Amino acid sequence: MRRAVLILMLLAGCKQDMAQMPRLDPVSSALGFPHDAAALLPPEGTVARHADLSPVPDALPDQIPLAMLERGRERYDVFCAPCHSPTGDGDGMIVRRGFPPPPSYHDPGLIRAPDRHFYDVITNGYGVMFSYASRVPPADRWAIIAYIRALQLSQRTPVALADAGLAEGEE
Ligand code: HEC
Fold first, then answer.
1. pLDDT, tens digit, for every residue of 30-44?
2. How far is CA 61 from CA 50, 73, 82, 95, 146, in A?
3. Does ligand 1 have an atom closer than 6 angstroms to the CB of 151?
4. CA angle (118 as vertex; 74, 133 as ends), nearest 5
5. What are the sequence ranges of the domains in the chain?
6. Where does this protein have coiled-coil stretches (predicted)?
7. pLDDT for residue 5
8. Closest atom, ligand 1, to C-alpha of 118
9. Beta carbon of 111 within 6 Å of any ligand 1 atom
10. pLDDT given at position 164
């Protein structure tokens, strides 16, 4: 019994010390630390744990796989359609609420513009449009560009030339 009391007292003492220790929350500010922050910056060149390190192409493939187009459409609808509109004419929902309207993808200048121009606009932003580099990884940028090319084609192709199978598809 006495031993138990002693152990209890010792444990209580420990608890007290721990509770009074100075500590820093993971992302709190900490004057005097590097960058005055409790969290250290990752060393330069650090790669995220699940990063995809496969080389990214620097052009569209000659034959665009259907999966790439589908991925492009999905990403386009998330990141671009709010301003550029689902058809690419620049009349998206954000624009209708007052954001400056972007040019239509169906303008001759953007039909002629090289694929790389679209890639650079997504990466660096353009005028009032901000950069999507942190939200759209390189492979997705190409997928989106493939889909924008499809959108452009869709507005310029006479119905008679559209492939019958595609025209009768679910969408
Ligand atoms: C918040 C609204 C907004 C979103 C979202 C947006 N854009 Fe834009 N984009 C604009 C505006 C506005 C311009 C015109 C900018 C200017 O001329 O100052 C523009 C211009 C462009 C241009 C034309 C550049 C040129 O040569 O005239 C391209 C290409 C483009 N955007 C692609 C994209 C793609 C691809 C995405 C999706 C990854 C995207 N934008 C998302 C607003 C947006």
1. 888 888 888 888 888
2. 25, 17, 27, 32, 9
3. no
4. 70
5. 66-155
6. none
7. 72
8. 29
9. no
10. 57
Q: Which of 104, 105, 124, 126 to mutate to test the pocket of ligand 1 (most atoms within 8 A of CB)?
A: 126
Amino acid identity for residue 86 in this structure:
P
User: Which pLDDT does position 171 carry in this prediction?
Assistant: 46
Q: Is 71 in the pocket of ligand 1 (CB under 6 A)?
A: no
Query: To the nearest 10°, the Cα dihedral for 98, 101, 102, 107?
Result: 160
Task: Pick the more confident residue, 139 or 14.
Answer: 139
Between CA 65 and CA 145 the distance in angstroms is 13
Topology (CATH level 3) of domain 66-155? Cytochrome Bc1 Complex; Chain D, domain 2 (1.10.760)
| CA-proximal residue: ligand 1, atom 3 (nearest) | 83
